[in-house]
Amino acid sequence: MHDDLIHSEILRPMVALIAWTLVMLLWMLATRLPAMKAAGVDLSQLVGTRAADADRSLPASAQWKAHNYNHLMEQPTLFYAVCAVLALSHTGDGVNAWIAWAYVGLRVAHSIAQATTNRVQTRFILFLLSSLALIALTLHAAMAVF
């Protein structure tokens, strides 16, 4: 049983999305820190700011990466949980692994769209498709444990 869990295919897309989230973190920092410097923001003087403060003082294109990084802390948490259920229930291989890879691919595409052009219609379609993949994984997890 232990070996089956370690080798569950669904663990790979989970790790891939975590790695992508870290790529977005680095992209955000590489974009946002120079934008803050250019805007004259002194990090040592900031106390209790909110995201809206940065939205007002930094270029929108710099903020898009930060917004996307925040999005990767939201719905994907459900993805990680459902993938863990699928791995633990020994149903994380085959079709569920493929659906998980589709979810990751759609989230990466969503990140790239939001961080570059930020077209809402494109983002919405990618979000909707990734949500459908998440729903499918959730249904499969429910069938495995109930």
UniProtKB/TrEMBL annotation:
Entry's transmembrane regions: 12-30, 124-145
GO cellular component: membrane
Keyword Membrane: yes
Locations listed in the record: Membrane
Keywords associated with the record: Membrane, Transmembrane, Transmembrane helix
SUPFAM superfamilies in UniProt: MAPEG domain-like
Matches recorded under InterPro entries: MAPEG-like_dom_sf, Membr-assoc_MAPEG
Name of the molecule in the record: MAPEG family protein
Naturally occurring in which organism (per UniProt): Sphingomonas aerolata
The organism's taxonomic lineage, starting at the top: Bacteria, Pseudomonadati, Pseudomonadota, Alphaproteobacteria, Sphingomonadales
